[in-house]
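#structure-requests
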Amino acid sequence: MLLSVLALSAAIAALLLLVLRFRLPAFLALLLVSVAFGGALGMDGRALLASIQLGMGSTLGFVAVVVGLGAMFGALLEYAGGIRAIADRLLHAMGERRATGALGLIGFVVAIPVFFDVAFILLVPLIHRLAVRSARSTTYYAIPLLAGLAVAHAFIPPTPGPIAVANLVGASLGWVTAFGVLCGLPAMLVAGPLFARRFRALPPPPATDVLSDADDASMQSAPVSFAAALFAVLMPLVLIVCNTLGQALLPAGPFVDALAFIGHPFIALLLACLYAWIWFGRRRKIPAVQLREIMTRALEPAGIVVLVTGAGGVFKQVLVDSGVGPQLGAALGEQAIPILPLAFFIAAVIRVAQGSATVAMIAGAGLIAPLVEAVALSPPHTALVVVAIAAGATVASHVNDSGFWLVNRYLQQSERETLASWTVCSTLVGTVGFAMSGVLWLVF
């Protein structure tokens, strides 16, 4: 047992060293560590190669489809002006007095189909306009938006992080979505509108800093309606959750079988993509060639996420096949070490050490997955482990995170200001989300 713990600790240290010191891509670093880890524990060459193939194939068989469909769907929504439609309607409905709450909701909704950095860049002009119009600081409006973006990015499928973690630990996406919302909304409120109050007294930006509509890449001449955009975002989520509820509450039969089919993430996202292609594209007379280019470009950043996730699946499989995972799971059960805080802590350590939330989620899930299997958690508790990993991977965004510099650059802050605003905001998102997962753990 001691040898297994030492080998696992060495594997984690080696992974961080390769990523931080030698700047290797996370995909390559995870594969190298998996091979070295399996060899150190005495796995023969054939068994190790079989684990690599099985881990990569079983992970990508699910994740590649979902991430690819989600990326194309998000690109169509962005191009059609759906983000602008959602932002404008929510701000108009809630008014400037409640603009921080509206911005939190905007971030929460928009980041479900669109990557965090893309959504933030598209909405920065909106933040600047609000700041100048109300004579308040840009940070005052940016923090709620960032909190909503961070929550959706880490907690809500079909964004890549929770999709990958749910697949690695064997969690139901319906439960993950439901608990992600229940844990994420309080986290967004605390880290967003409530935390933003401390920045009310800061000076507003100069009027010359405001981008015109002509310069705003997200503004389309004829954006889709709010109802169409919101329907597109919510449709796959509702189908997935309905499938989970139907399996749990309804008797077996043709209706439940049909619900299981259309509520599977593959079909739910496929229907969302088809709806977006028709309603946002062909109905608006956009040439099919142009739509194809938009959707194809969206697969480029998604490909990186897919490969890193596959490498995380390899690491998990080597843990299982080497026997380390089951041993640690048995020890965890004997000593009654709570798995929820352990999942949060592991993901948080990896996040702080190497910066990437996605890598922290995938590596953390690879380590926790064998333990989840060994202790035989219920579906709701397994989903809460996913939320805890997501929460840990969200905390303490700092100078080794690309998101830190994105916020720093677009808000024109000093490093100290970004640490006092965005770093604290991300930490609040993670800690409040984890606290909520603990409450739900006791309930379920």
